[in-house]
């Protein structure tokens, strides 16, 4: 296993408010780590720290030297009068290692190449943002609520695609999601965040954890019978997501 990212005892204060404290985690190649947590829990702040957009943290953030990171934002605002096709939008990205056509094919969106960006549906837009992030053959994909604005069926498809791409490209994925039950089948590890790490581990473990139930209520438990996750990871043996403190 190749370690891509390691956070050790990371904390963040903004204007004397504690935003994050005691965050420790490790992400390896081929692994999907999903961060769930209520509004204001610090999920986006954590992602920004990893992207180098938030400064002034304590603790250490280690990245594999030269790590190529592909980022998919929550959403992208494009001016309604800007004449911009999908292919043109994709060609504007820096550090391209594959062609626009190859990237679109990876997300099953070849037919959208000539479509105006403003004409895309929510699900199509998220696929295009994912395709754009793939253009530099990322070793780490960071996805901030990639399925926002997508209907439930589309969300399930999108998370399955992210899982498929992770297996195919053997990249690591750090993802924020509001819906644990929707990502359960597509994630290896989950961190439940509320400033600090409330609980962590395999998705079923987190969904049954009292801290998770306290934050989100119990409906998640009922979903377990529908969304079952199968994989070979063993948190106890790998110890790759740790809660310090
Ligand atoms: N630049 C900033 N200045 C002041 N406070 C900030 C700043 N950025 C984030 N915060 C605060 O940090 C807390 C965590 O915000 P963050 O956006 O990381 O949460 P989140 O878990 O992503 O929330 P949501 O699910 O609502 O998107 C919030 O209370 C927010 O107001």
UniProtKB/TrEMBL annotation:
Keywords: ATP-binding, Cell membrane, Ion transport, Membrane, Nucleotide-binding, Translocase, Transport, Zinc, Zinc transport. Gene3D superfamilies: P-loop containing nucleotide triphosphate hydrolases. Residues 5-219 form the ABC transporter domain. The keyword Membrane applies. Pfam families: ABC_tran. It comes from the Bacteria. GO terms for molecular function: ATP binding. This is Zinc ABC transporter ATP-binding protein ZnuC. It comes from Oceanisphaera pacifica. The gene is znuC.
């Amino acid at each position: 296993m190749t370690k891509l990212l390691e956070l050790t005892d990371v904390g963040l204060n903004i204007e004397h408010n504690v935003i994050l404290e005691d965050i420790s985690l490790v992400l390896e190649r081929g692994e999907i780590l999903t961060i769930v947590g209520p509004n204001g829990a610090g999920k986006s702040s954590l992602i920004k720290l990893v992207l180098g957009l938030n400064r002034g943290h304590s603790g250490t953030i280690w990245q594999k030297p030269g790590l190529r990171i592909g980022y998919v934002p929550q959403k992208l605002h494009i001016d309604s009068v800007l004449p911009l096709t999908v292919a043109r939008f994709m060609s504007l990205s820096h550090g391209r290692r594959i062609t626009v056509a190859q990237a679109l094919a990876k997300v099953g969106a070849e037919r959208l190449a000539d479509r105006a960006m403003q004409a895309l549906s929510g699900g199509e837009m998220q696929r295009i943002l994912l395709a754009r992030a793939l253009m530099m053959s990322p070793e780490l994909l960071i996805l901030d609520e990639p399925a926002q604005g997508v209907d439930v069926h589309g969300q399930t498809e999108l998370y399955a695609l992210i899982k498929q791409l992770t297996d195919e490209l053997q990249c690591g994925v750090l993802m924020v999601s509001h819906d644990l039950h929707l990502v359960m089948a597509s994630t290896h590890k989950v961190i439940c965040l509320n400033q600090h790490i409330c609980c962590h581990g395999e998705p079923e473990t987190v969904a049954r954890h009292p801290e998770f139930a306290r934050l989100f209520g119990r409906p998640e438990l009922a979903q377990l019978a529908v969304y079952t996750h199968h994989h070979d990871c063993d948190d106890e043996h790998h110890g790759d997501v740790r809660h310090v403190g």
